[in-house]
Specification:
Largest sheet: 6 strands, mixed
Bound molecules: ligand LQZAQKY5, molybdate ion
Strand order of the largest sheet: 17-14-18-22-21-19
Number of strands: 29
Radius of gyration: 30 Å
CATH class of the largest domain: Alpha Beta
Helix content: 10-25%
Number of helices: 6
Strand content: 25-35%
Distance between the termini: 30 Å
Number of domains: 4
Shape: elongated
């Protein structure tokens, strides 16, 4: 049987990075930055006050009563400081030439024509120097990285209107099963709600791809081939129909098209399919919902990351707070809940592959190597997080 790492290595040879495109900052959150963001100007652009108070020439006086020679709100350019006076200044306003320190208003009587200053400041007090945050031409965000709200804000503060990001990989999703009905529809006598298409759609979106289509295929191999014929995608994901049953549509339709189907030494998610269909990479997950979630996190996430040009997420070593048994000869992906630096199985159902509802209790999948049969209390396991 092929191991998880052999399988992943092979799947990664099927994909390559998408092109780079420019997007406005308004569209940038969650995208993968592929070109460094460089500051267009120093930030702050000039020395400015960190406090509402009075700008003074620190070498030029001491506590006492001072004439206020100008008022400097933020957004207004000051005149040079008149010698022998102070200037009333607001937070963020430019320091007047000749002033080098600010007295907070709380250290004064808050006067407007004259002011009584109780504590005289040292040079530089409450002044934010030009360029202290960013330097013109300096790298503010180094690529590659997934852009968070704070990163988008840093790009805006650096004066960038657009950023260079990876084009979102376009992903087509197909699920199979006569038993499937969409959530919100009435359940027939032998029906279940389709959760795999929801998982794959949301997973692709969450990890930075764009879902181009989601189809539920019911009517056998011909319908599946028809659905595949019209697809415009960088990657195709299917779920269901890959095991040993009499109605395993995906396998039946795609073996003649050169897609490979074989077991991978893992639980859940053992029956897997992979290859290319009309040149487009395809991953065929088994239909059980936890198997789909595991296939997505273990294999599809690194493929999406490779397409986006960003490193795949690393695992976290965490301590086991409650042991469990695992199958011999297959790596196990156990849904776990995380508390501090410890983990325990997320539910009493363990890694049962049909427990879609129980997955909501999990914070990650613990990866247990194929040769382990018992995960001992106090042991360390590598845990994959479920979100980027
Ligand atoms: N005789 C054997 N039977 C099975 C084997 C085996 O080796 N020999 N492997 C088992 C394993 S492991 C898995 S995993 C499943 C994989 O089966 P399929 O990929 O063919 O998936 P289906 O039969 O279509 O469905 C399995 C299960 O999942 C439910 N399902 C399917 N699609 C959805 C969906 N979109 N949303 C929610 N739930 C879905 C379906 O109702 C079934 O209960 O095969 C085992 N059997
Ligand atoms: O491998 Mo199946 O995915 O155990 O249920």
């Amino acid at each position: 049987m092929r191991s998880v790492s052999e399988h992943l290595e092979h799947l990664l040879t099927l994909v390559s990075p998408t092109e780079v495109e420019a997007v406005a900052l308004a569209e940038a959150v969650g995208r993968v930055l592929r070109g460094d963001v460089v500051a267009v100007a120093d930030a702050p652009p000039w020395d400015n006050s960190a406090m509402d108070g009075y700008a003074v020439a620190s070498a030029d006086g001491s506590a006492g009563s001072w004439r206020v020679s100008q008022d400097i709100p933020a957004g207004h350019a000051p005149l040079p400081l008149e010698p022998g006076t102070v200037a009333r200044i607001m937070t963020g306003a430019p320091m007047p030439q000749g002033a080098d320190a600010v007295v907070p208003v709380e250290r004064t009587d808050a006067g407007t024509d004259r002011v009584r200053i109780r504590d005289w400041p040292v040079a530089g007090a409450h002044v934010r120097p030009a360029g202290a945050d960013m330097r013109e031409g300096g790298v503010v965000l180094a690529a590659p990285r997934r852009l968070r709200a704070v990163d988008v804000a840093a790009a805006a503060a650096a004066g960038c209107a657009e950023v260079a990001v990876a084009r979102r990989p376009r992903v087509a999703v197909l699920v199979t099963g006569d038993e499937l009905v969409a959530p919100g529809e009435p359940l027939g006598p032998a029906a279940i709600y389709d959760s795999n298409s929801a998982l794959l759609r949301a997973g692709v979106q969450e990890w930075g791809g764009a879902v181009t289509s989601v189809e539920v295929v019911r009517d056998g191999p011909q319908a599946l081939l028809q659905a595949l014929a019209g697809l415009d995608a960088d990657l195709v994901l299917t779920a269901g129909g890959v095991s040993a049953g009499a109605y395993d549509v995906v396998k039946e339709a795609l073996v003649p098209r050169g897609v490979q189907f074989a077991p991978v030494a893992m639980q859940p998610g053992k029956p897997q399919g992979w290859g290319r269909i009309d040149g487009v990479p395809i991953v065929c997950a088994p239909g059980n919902p936890v198997s789909v979630a595991v296939t997505f996190r273990l294999f599809v996430v690194p493929m999406l990351c490779a397409m986006l040009g960003v490193p795949a997420p690393t695992t976290r070593p965490l301590r086991v707070a409650q042991g469990w048994r695992t199958p011999d000869g297959r790596a196990q992906l156990m849904p776990v809940s995380i508390e501090g630096d410890t983990v325990r199985p997320a539910t009493s159902g363990g890694s049962g592959s049909n427990l879609a509802g129980a997955l909501a209790k999990a914070d990650g999948f613990a990866y247990v190597a194929a040769d382990v049969v018992q995960v001992e209390l106090g042991a360390t396991v590598d845990v994959m997080g479920l979100v980027p």
